[in-house]
Amino acid sequence: MVNTKITIIGAGNLGTSLVKGLVESKIYTPQNFVLTRRNTTKLSSFKEIGCEIAINNIEAVTNANIIILAVLPQKINEVLNELKGSIKEDQLVVSLVSGVKVKNIQNILGSTIPVVRAMPNTAIAIRESMTCIATTSNWNEKLPEVEDLFKLVGETIVINEEQMTSATALCACGIAFFLRAIRAASQGGNEIDFHANEALKMAAQTAKGAASLLIANNSHPEDEIDKVTSPKGCTIAGLNEMEHNGFSSSFIKGITISAKQAKDLYTEE
């Protein structure tokens, strides 16, 4: 257990998923967290387990060691201007806000406030997130603290801040892309012979197994594909049909379009 007080400003799906994951780690308890949201009724289940729920953002950050910004990009300037002067140099700001650079935050809060960006995905709720972390050179000493936090809820990688928009598309948006692929596989299973719930279970577990193979073997996807494809076999026939219909190119295009869109989510004042 730790005594760190974490305030999450804008505890929507991502913020609450982080709380679930950190509590599940057994290192943190609900009492470590203060959650804010405009509609606090949606946080009632977190209040019931012991989290502190607040409406006033300024009061919420007063005793925090770590302040996590989890608001929409369109709302970040409003929130930062509200908190300006209330956040101190001995507090750490971790921004989960897509498209908002460290300099954008410090332009409002002040250059002496430590700021680190993190881009997790909603799998943090089950401690399976891929979280990308970045900051500017003057706050590199804060990276280990943020890494330690997010390692409790999955894997982490430190990247250059210029890559954070791309990380948003690949990892954060990527959850939806892979879920859509699993959905498509389950629909295919439904069409060929299986009930919908059976097909979904089979598709999801197969996807989990495929990812686990790559991680466990530290291998390339094509190496694992080669192991299950034989000349004139059913696997290569299916793969070729998917490629003829643009499977890989569509997936790649989806990621690049998401990255482009992520760049336009935030407009500086």
TrEMBL record:
Catalytic activity, as annotated: L-proline + NADP(+) = (S)-1-pyrroline-5-carboxylate + NADPH + 2 H(+); L-proline + NAD(+) = (S)-1-pyrroline-5-carboxylate + NADH + 2 H(+)
Keywords, ordered alphabetically: Amino-acid biosynthesis, Cytoplasm, NADP, Oxidoreductase, Proline biosynthesis
Main location as per UniProt: cytoplasm
A Pfam family it matches: F420_oxidored
InterPro entries given in the database record: 6-PGluconate_DH-like_C_sf (IPR008927), NAD(P)-bd_dom_sf (IPR036291), P5C_Rdtase_cat_N (IPR028939), P5CR_dimer (IPR029036), Pyrroline-COOH_reductase (IPR000304)
Record-listed NADP(+) binding positions: 9-14, 70-73
Annotated residues for binding of NADPH: 57
Keyword presence, Nucleotide-binding: no
Recorded GO MF terms: pyrroline-5-carboxylate reductase activity
Gene Ontology CC annotations of this record: cytoplasm
Family: Belongs to the pyrroline-5-carboxylate reductase family.
Record function comment: Catalyzes the reduction of 1-pyrroline-5-carboxylate (PCA) to L-proline.
Name of the protein in question: Pyrroline-5-carboxylate reductase
Gene: proC
